[in-house]
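#struct-pred
JK: can someone run the complex with flavin-adenine dinucleotide? inputs below
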Amino acid sequence: MDFNDTPEEAAFRAAARAWLDANAQRLQPGERQPGLEGRTEPGAVKRAQEWQAKKADAGWACITWPKEYGGRGATAIQSVIWNQEESRYKTPPAIFAIGQGMLGPTIMVHGSDAQKQRYLKPMLRGEEIWCQLFSEPGAGSDLAGLRTTAVRDGDDWVLNGQKIWTTGAQYSKWGMIVCRTDPTADKHRGITYFIVDMQSPGIAIRPIKQINGFSAFNEVFFTDVRVADANRVGDVNDGWRGALTTLMNERHAIGAGAQGGPDFGDLLRLAKETLIDGRPAFEDRAVRQRLARFYTRLKGLQYTAYRTQTALSRGQTPGPESSIGKLVGAPLRQEIASFAIDLQGAAGAMLDRRLAPEEGAWQLAYLGAPGLRLAGGTDEILRNIIAERVLGLPPEIRADKGLPFKDIPTGPKNQ
Ligand SMILES: Cc1cc2nc3c(=O)[nH]c(=O)nc-3n(C[C@H](O)[C@H](O)[C@H](O)COP(=O)(O)OP(=O)(O)OC[C@H]3O[C@@H](n4cnc5c(N)ncnc54)[C@H](O)[C@@H]3O)c2cc1C
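RT: done, structure tokens with the ligand placed:
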């Protein structure tokens, strides 16, 4: 493990910092980036688009994308450095992450030349926002169980069904969707991948009210929605390959972007400022023990992240530590937020940002943590991955293996 930048990395960091200094405001002590919750607030999309265009004009947008698509051809470690530096400045919520981090790279690998020409530049500049239409009420962890259908009709396909948990559908111009196109094939084989215009007739978007009061994601219903065959990504019935590319990039994007919200420094400050029986909570033995335990676990995570960073710096592909980071980090974040809310006493029960301590930052972190434990692979799925691919334990029994999709039992009526 090497904690220092190489001379080239240090030069890159200095260039990034110089541009950010000239174009954005540095966060002051105690200030933090607006959380992703802010993306549905009035004006948030416009502010994010303006910042993205500014970065694009200066060559700092999507820096790992190849130059031919408007990127900088930067390395993975340069991307880590850029993210570290940008997170020290006041910038709008990352509303383009799904398109730029997951869907754009899928188009680069599986899309036609015409699709690359048409879609990638406006995506990079943030002019067109994208959403990911994968999950369905009966297909999340088991994504290949999806049931939204696409049926060929002349030069078009006709889509029917329902997607759910679609982040940003309400402000997206385009969506990328996986549909069932051959129910007689086994479940991974009869799937096709499309680009769909979110303003098409037959699409109904219903925001879902979340526990934190925001509505970042939606249900999306498709009734006879027409999609041109030119908007098919990859071959008919071969969409699972494209879906895997998207999911691989999703794990990476979630690992890279898991920052924001209050940190250990904020918790320490809270413990020093909160009084228990007239004395700072920080002086209480039980509180100090909890703080010490959080600190050691956070340090463990930090050093694990450095191992990933060192691998990237040496041009290697990071190993299973990326899954471990999310599996350990998300529940730890939830525990820390829960402890902070306990420290706040009765005030901890308030969520109204005008009234709650620290504008409700700990409450939002607490209520957002369960989502982090689901998105991009639930805790249980990550454990399965570690068990099977890292520890070499026997794989889960898959009762639907080799069966045509239409014959997979779905409930009592089929048994
Ligand atoms: C914040 C957030 C944003 C999201 N954004 C999007 C988006 O933009 N687009 C999109 O398509 N989807 C999105 N999702 C959906 C996400 O991909 C799914 O929530 C995830 O895949 C889990 O699927 P599920 O919710 O259907 O849960 P299920 O798969 O139904 O799981 C339910 C429970 O069963 C457990 N379980 C399932 N299978 C197994 C197994 N084999 N072994 C052991 N336990 C198992 C799970 O761990 C979980 O606890 C988002 C989710 C969140 C939380």
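RT: quick notes.
Residues 98, 131-135, 140-141, 165-167, 217, 371, 374-375, 378, 380-381, 384, 396 surround flavin-adenine dinucleotide (CB under 6 Å).
The first helix runs from residue 7 to 23.
JK: thanks, will look after standup
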